[in-house]
Hints:
Shape: globular
Low-confidence stretches: 109-114
Number of helices: 3
Structural class: alpha+beta
CATH architecture: Alpha-Beta Complex
Number of domains: 1
CATH class: Alpha Beta
Amino acid sequence: MVESILADSIPRLAAKARLKFDKVREKNLLLLPEKVVVLNEAAASILTLCDGRQTVNTITEKIRASLQADTETADTSALPDLITMKADISEFLREMEDQGWVVIHNHGSVDNKE
């Protein structure tokens, strides 16, 4: 059964995962046992905020604020609306959870999926 990720769900990197910036290649990496995943900037930004304290809603708001700051002089109407961003980020996090790279706790939940 696939559960939806709620706005108050709290994601964190799995214990086996670690984020690193490779200065030589200028790439964001997700380090896993026997595997290295090269992340694009958006994925790295989202995963950096997955610290086990911030909700999906908070992460979405921070990503949107960052994008707005980056496009301050440009037309911000090109940015997706908050609902669309939240859906996209939730889908990304669900895919990361399916890979075992992120653990998502629903608010108030004490289960430990690792």
